[in-house]
Amino acid sequence: MNGQSRSRCAAFTLTEIMVTVSVIVVIAAIAIPAYRKARATSKIKVAESELAMLAAAVKQLAWDTRRWPGGALRNDPNAPRILNLTTNGTGLMEAHATNFPSNWKGPYISSVPNDPWGHPYFFDPEYLIGGQRLPAVGSYGPNGQGTNDADNLYCTVD
User: Which residue of 10, 14, 25, 99 has the fewest C-beta atoms within 10 A of its own C-beta?
Assistant: First the structure.
């Protein structure tokens, strides 16, 4: 050597960096869809749980008053569908329900949330399920629209 000292700096080569980035991209490509699927599944489970709670409240209201949410008689063939159970007047969460008879013992639920996709839950006294018309509470699902479309979730009120 001619008297000069050469020092080597420790560094990653371009190949090592490219391999590391490639591994991270592959892991992300696997993890992101799995995360999205888990998130969608959890929203469905939350909606199913809330629907069961709402169905129990509607059932108790119907047992006490013989009326559906909104005040229509249970045996009324023209009982309307309630598109938004979060509003007052349904008889589920009011402090005093003026459109219900004296045997109203509510409130039957402290509050009615929106579904996990931000849409209100509905009540339909004649929701079409497997060719039968049954009383049900429901959610329009992720797309937030459509009567009886494929992504709707519901719970019958027996």
Answer: 10
